[in-house]
Structure to design on (1310 residues):
């Protein structure tokens, strides 16, 4: 914009993060298909570094230099109207004049609250960035520096109630399935079993589909985007009554995010396991169950500044119609 | 494949199977036995009243069917009737029937038209395919029209459509599977 | 790649599908190996996974699928070897064990898991027990019978050298014992058997038979489980009995599938050692009771018995422990089977009993009561079935069963001690009874056993009655005369085995035999009675030899000769005149030898009576006369009076022969009687040269009357030979003149004979005769003593 008005880039702005090279980088896929790798921060981590402004012209008149830390949710359908849920501001320089050459401004945000995880979805984007603004009379010089944020959760080990349910079509196909937990961390393994109580259809195979639903907007007006992350075959052929088929499904193989619910009343990302049986005439019998995914703190990462968010044992509310599961 | 996070031994955890399969069940004949053969095509009548029909021979061990074995004779229009009933009354995606072969009903053909053996044979296999798909459908199995078509000597087209009640009053403490039918349309 | 559809039906389809699949396997295997060579493990595993996608197919017949499997498992060997040799160390296996499970399709995933899991065990880093358990449990995911069977077979193949076994092995690996292996195989076996049985329900019911055939082709896959169990060194008899076998039998019984039951039991019997079977006979046999009616239970029981028989015969085996009452177990359990299992037909029952019998005879050769017990059970079985239901196959089995003790004992005297043998044998049909009788006789003859008492003779002959007497159930059709005479000759030989060391008892033995044989009908007499006559004559000689020890010997001899006479009369009344004539001659000689003149004379006169009354054929007459003359010449017990009567009788009889040539020859023959006949009084030869020459002259006279030239010359030559004989014996009545005269006569006649074969023979005969004379002449040149032809001039 600045260039358009004929002033050109009178200054180059670079935002440096302390120890950036040592930070773990997280890759995200952008809407145009390209990928970007961003340094990873956790909730409560300090953000510090310096801003380097290289003034190319003789001098640069400004009415203040600001550094902001922004957490922002943006619907791709409505880019012009992003919602900022976090914004911290530091004044790097009072209004005045910057002479030609390099100027450095150290900065530090302590114990920064980063309540949500970065998310680059189909319809929505939740991102964090540092933004330097050199305020000028006509056009500000703005520079953004994005970072990645992951939220770590810690569930009590005792909260391991399994998901168990009998499901069927009367007089035709009855099974009982069980997944060992209702909440899985992203490197977790889903253990389960399918117990066949009645089989009067000619089953050909059985699989579990891992499904991601991205829901933007609130209530009924929300837009839902469904994506099958993977299909995982768990049975080949037709079982008879009494057969018990084991499931061991490693989540680590896939690119997953934690389950996100109603993030700032803007969007949700939910995961489901869809148990699908296929009969010889290619009819599909399926049952979809939501599972909660969460990010577990790496063992290697010592209890650093990122304080795990402790969530109580409340189950998800909208499982599905009947709730006969005993667990 | 990204690297797994296993440390120590391999992950051999499984859910404990609390119910050991009863050997009677393990070795029992599958309870999904359902076999319908369309056989013995015969041509009856003369002139405008000439038509072919087929024996519909059914063997099953599915309890919803009254008879374990039954045989009826049906003609093409009966299959059309069944298809119509199912399409009207159930949410089933009914597979296609073999074509009506209108061209074969035109006059001045050099051959036997609808009654050419090769045509009858092709139609027979297609009808067999059709009826096996329908009869294996859990929802179709609950339709009166299917039972009448398969097991009653004469189709009463003035019947009262409805569902078959289960022979025993079973309280199923479970929720329904969702059922999607998708037939691949195959041309014969 | 597709999992849809039915197996391609035609042979060409199958070949093409298989070829294509194998080609894809090779290609991926090549890529896999290339990656492994460069230590790119993950890429290698990925290629292996792609290769394994082929195993998901539904298009191949079991046979083609098997071929595909062989190719794939061969290639997986490379991967496995690589993991064990190169990759395994350094705790990288746990990750790999997880990584292969990311594979989306279950069939390739499980093949990989098995490959990695077993390699893991082999590098000895993980818990063997957990991994084995995990593999066998995870394989449940494949419920498709064919694919599941092969997958689980692959599991067995890979774990072959990785199963925990004895204690020493535990130290090397850290965990897992033989009980874990047993549990592992039991689980896998149960699942495989289930899949194998379930195969039966695949596809349309009209293809049932085809599927049964296919199932049979795949049986070894299931049987491999049992082989693995039998390979485990850590299993002893106790463990086998308490743990291993019950686990197997449970599946066998419950599967209720005839193909599976039959195969698995046979497999159990063949793969486990006999020592184990001995400890578990009851469980195996009781399992048989619970089998499906289409199972050939008999085959199973018999193969078990056969193994144990071999075992007990093997000198290295140590034999069957005395605390295992093997006979009792088998007899009880097999009886139960026969009585309670509806599919065990009488024929099967008999076949099983036959094997039990074999066992009893091998293991307890001295326990005749066991055999009797079994035979009476057999009888009960046979009696419990309506006669109409007993078919030929059943009877054949019964026949086989009855031969078992014959072969085992090789002693017919033991057979006749078996009380139920005869009644059971009576259940056989005519032909089988006869076959068995022949078998018994043959055994008697081959073993050379002698039947010493009348009771035993009675019993033995009773057994072979079908050969001796006409049977009520005998078919009316034509009898093959060759077979018949063979059989009867055999019976004849049996007579020679009826031998008692005690003379008096021998007499009773023969009387018993006579009682049987005389009921045999005319067609059998000619075979059975003559040996009896000879046996009696043998006894005559025995009595005579022992006469000093037995003062009643003469009386007894009389009895025997009476006995002989009766027999020969029976033969004679059957119209067998020539035979009886000969037998009378033998009897006469026999009596002559023991110096009972009256009896000898009586027999001779019987012979003459037969000659006169019964023999009319001139050839027969001639040979009878020859015999009679020969007989009389040999006898030495006749006094002058009797001898005179008889030699005249011979001469007269000879003279009465119809044909001149016969007359001539017989009369010439009679000359012997006057020369070398003996009479009791002087016990010297008659040497009546006068009468000799009279006879010969008479013979020449008769020859002269012969109309036919050739025959006449022939007779002349023959008579000449008589003359020469007597001349050489220094019979003074024979002179050189007589000889020269006869020779001249012959020389005169010879040219008239013409030239034919007969004439040539005659010429030759004469030449030889003359040569003999010339030879003697040369020999005697210079010597003075004895007759010689020195003065004989031969023109």
């Amino acid at each position: 914009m600045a260039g358009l008005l004929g002033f050109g880039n009178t200054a180059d702005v670079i935002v440096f993060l302390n120890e950036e090279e040592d930070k773990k980088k997280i890759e995200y896929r952008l809407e145009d298909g390209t990928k970007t790798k961003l340094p990873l921060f956790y909730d409560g981590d300090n953000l510090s570094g310096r801003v380097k402004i290289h003034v190319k012209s003789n001098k640069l008149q400004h009415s203040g230099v600001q550094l902001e830390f922004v957490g922002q949710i943006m619907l791709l359908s409505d880019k012009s109207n992003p919602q900022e849920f976090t914004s911290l501001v530091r004044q790097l320089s009072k209004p005045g004049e910057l002479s030609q050459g390099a100027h450095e401004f150290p900065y530090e945000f302590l114990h920064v609250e980063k309540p949500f995880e970065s998310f680059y979805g189909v319809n929505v984007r939740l991102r964090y960035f540092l933004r330097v603004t050199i305020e000028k009379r006509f056009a500000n010089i703005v520079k953004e520096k994005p970072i990645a944020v992951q939220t770590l959760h810690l569930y009590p080990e005792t909260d391991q109630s399994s998901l168990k349910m009998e499901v069927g079509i009367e007089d035709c196909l009855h099974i009982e399935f069980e997944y060992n937990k209702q909440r899985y961390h992203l490197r977790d393994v889903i253990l389960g079993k399918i117990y066949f109580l009645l089989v009067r259809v000619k089953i050909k195979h059985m699989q579990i589909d891992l499904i991601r639903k991205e829901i933007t907007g609130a209530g009924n007006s929300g837009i839902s985007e469904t994506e099958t992350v993977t299909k995982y075959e768990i049975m080949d052929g037709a079982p008879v009554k009494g057969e018990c088929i084991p499931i061991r499904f490693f989540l680590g193989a896939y690119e997953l995010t934690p389950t996100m619910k109603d993030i700032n009343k803007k969007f949700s990302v939910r995961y489901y396991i869809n148990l699908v049986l296929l009969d010889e005439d290619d009819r599909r019998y399926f049952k979809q169950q939501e599972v909660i995914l969460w990010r577990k703190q790496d063992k290697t990462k010592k209890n650093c500044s990122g304080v795990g968010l402790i969530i109580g044992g409340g189950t998800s509310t909208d499982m599905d119609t009947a709730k006969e599961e005993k667990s | 494949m990204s690297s797994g996070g296993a440390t120590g031994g391999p992950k051999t955890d499984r859910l404990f199977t609390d119910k050991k399969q009863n050997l009677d069940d393990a070795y029992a004949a599958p309870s999904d036995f359902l076999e319908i053969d369309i056989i013995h095509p015969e041509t009856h009548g003369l002139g405008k009243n000439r038509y072919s029909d087929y024996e519909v021979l059914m063997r099953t061990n599915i309890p919803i069917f009254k008879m374990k074995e039954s045989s009826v004779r049906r003609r093409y229009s009966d299959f059309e009737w069944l298809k119509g009933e199912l399409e009207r009354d159930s949410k089933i995606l009914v597979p296609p029937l073999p074509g009506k072969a209108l061209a074969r009903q035109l006059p001045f053909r050099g051959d036997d038209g609808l009654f050419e053996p090769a045509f009858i044979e092709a139609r027979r296999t297609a009808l067999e395919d059709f009826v096996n798909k329908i009869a294996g459908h859990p929802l179709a199995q609950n339709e009166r029209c299917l039972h009448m078509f398969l097991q009653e000597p004469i189709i009463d087209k003035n019947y009262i459509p409805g569902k078959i009640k289960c022979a025993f009053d079973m309280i199923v403490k479970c929720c329904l599977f969702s059922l999607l039918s998708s037939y691949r349309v195959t041309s014969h | 790649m597709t999992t849809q559809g039915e197996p391609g039906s035609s042979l060409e389809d199958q070949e093409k599908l298989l070829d294509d699949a194998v080609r894809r396997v090779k290609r991926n295997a090549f890529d896999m190996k290339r990656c492994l060579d460069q230590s790119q493990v993950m890429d290698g595993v990925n290629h292996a996974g792609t290769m394994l996608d082929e195993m998901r197919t539904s298009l191949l017949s079991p046979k083609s699928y098997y071929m595909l499997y062989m190719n794939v498992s061969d290639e997986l060997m490379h991967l496995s070897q690589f993991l064990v040799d190169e990759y395994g160390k350094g705790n990288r296996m746990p990750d790999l064990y997880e990584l292969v499970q990311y594979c989306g399709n279950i069939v390739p995933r499980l093949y990989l898991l098995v490959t990695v899991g077993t390699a893991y065990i082999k590098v000895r880093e993980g818990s063997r027990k957990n991994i084995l358990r995990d593999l066998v449990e995870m394989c449940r995911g494949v419920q498709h019978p064919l694919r599941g069977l092969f997958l689980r077979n692959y599991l067995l193949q890979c774990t072959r050298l990785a199963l925990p076994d004895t204690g020493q092995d535990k130290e090397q690996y850290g965990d897992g014992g033989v009980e874990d292996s047993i549990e592992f195989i039991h689980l896998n076996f149960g699942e495989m058997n289930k899949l194998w049985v379930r195969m039966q329900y695949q596809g349309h019911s009209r293809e049932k038979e085809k599927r049964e055939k296919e199932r049979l082709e795949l049986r070894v896959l299931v049987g491999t489980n049992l082989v693995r169990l039998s390979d485990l060194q850590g299993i002893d008899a106790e463990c086998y009995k308490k743990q291993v076998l019950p686990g197997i039998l449970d599946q066998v019984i419950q599967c209720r599938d005839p193909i599976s039951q039959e195969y698995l039991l046979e497999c159990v019997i063949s793969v486990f050692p006999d020592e184990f079977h001995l400890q578990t006979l009851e469980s195996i046999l009781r399992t048989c009771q619970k089998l499906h009616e289409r199972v050939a239970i008999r085959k199973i029981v018999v193969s078990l018995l056969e193994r144990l028989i071999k075992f007990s015969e093997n000198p290295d085996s140590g034999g069957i422990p005395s605390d295992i009452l093997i006979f009792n177990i088998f007899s009880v359990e097999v009886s139960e089977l026969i009585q309670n299992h509806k599919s065990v037909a009488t024929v099967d029952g008999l076949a099983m009993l036959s094997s039990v019998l074999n066992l009893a005879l091998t293991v307890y050769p001295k326990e005749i009561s066991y055999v009797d017990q079994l035979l009476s059970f057999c009888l009960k079985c046979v009696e419990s079935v309506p006669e109409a239901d007993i078919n030929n196959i059943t009877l054949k089995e019964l026949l086989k069963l009855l031969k078992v003790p014959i072969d085992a004992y090789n002693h017919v005297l033991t057979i006749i001690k078996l009380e139920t043998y005869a009644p059971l044998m009576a259940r056989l049909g005519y032909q089988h009874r006869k076959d068995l009788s022949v078998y018994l006789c043959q055994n008697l003859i081959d073993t050379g056993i002698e039947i010493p008492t009348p009771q035993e003779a009675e019993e033995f002959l009773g057994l072979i009655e079908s050969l001796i007497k006409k049977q009520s159930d005998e078919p009316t059709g034509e009898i093959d005369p060759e077979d018949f005479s063979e059989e009867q000759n055999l019976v004849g030989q049996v007579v020679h085995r009826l031998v008692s060391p005690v003379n008096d008892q021998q007499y009773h033995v023969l009387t018993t035999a006579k009682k049987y044989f005389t009921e045999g009908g005319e067609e059998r007499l000619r075979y059975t009675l003559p040996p009896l006559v000879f046996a009696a004559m043998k006894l005559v000689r025995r009595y005579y030899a022992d006469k000093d020890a037995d003062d009643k010997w003469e009386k007894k001899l009389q009895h025997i000769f009476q006995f002989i006479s009766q027999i020969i009369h029976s033969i004679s009344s059957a119209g067998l005149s020539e035979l009886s004539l000969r037998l009378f001659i033998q009897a006469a000689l026999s009596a002559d030898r023991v110096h009972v003149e009256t009896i000898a004379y009586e027999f001779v006169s019987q012979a003459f009576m037969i000659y006169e009354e019964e023999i009319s054929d001139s050839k027969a007459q001639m040979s009878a006369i020859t015999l009679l003359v020969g007989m009389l010449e040999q006898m030495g017990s006749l006094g002058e009076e009797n001898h005179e009567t008889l030699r005249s009788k011979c001469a007269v009889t000879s003279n009465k022969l119809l044909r001149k040539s016969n007359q001539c020859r017989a009369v010439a023959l009679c000359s012997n009687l006057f020369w070398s006949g003996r009479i009791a009084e002087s016990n010297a030869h008659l040497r009546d040269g006068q009468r000799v020459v009279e006879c010969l002259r008479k013979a020449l006279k008769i020859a002269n009357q012969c109309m036919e030239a050739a025959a006449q010359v022939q007779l002349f030559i023959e008579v000449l030979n008589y003359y020469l004989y007597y001349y050489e014996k220094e019979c003074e009545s024979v002179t050189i003149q007589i000889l020269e005269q006869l020779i001249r006569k012959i020389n005169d006649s010879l040219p008239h004979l013409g030239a034919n074969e007969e004439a040539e023979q005659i010429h030759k005969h004469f030449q030889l005769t003359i040569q003999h004379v010339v030879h003697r002449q040369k020999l005697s040149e210079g010597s003075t003593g004895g007759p010689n032809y020195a003065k004989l001039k031969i023109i």
User: Anything to note?
Assistant: The first strand of chain B starts at residue 34 and ends at 44.
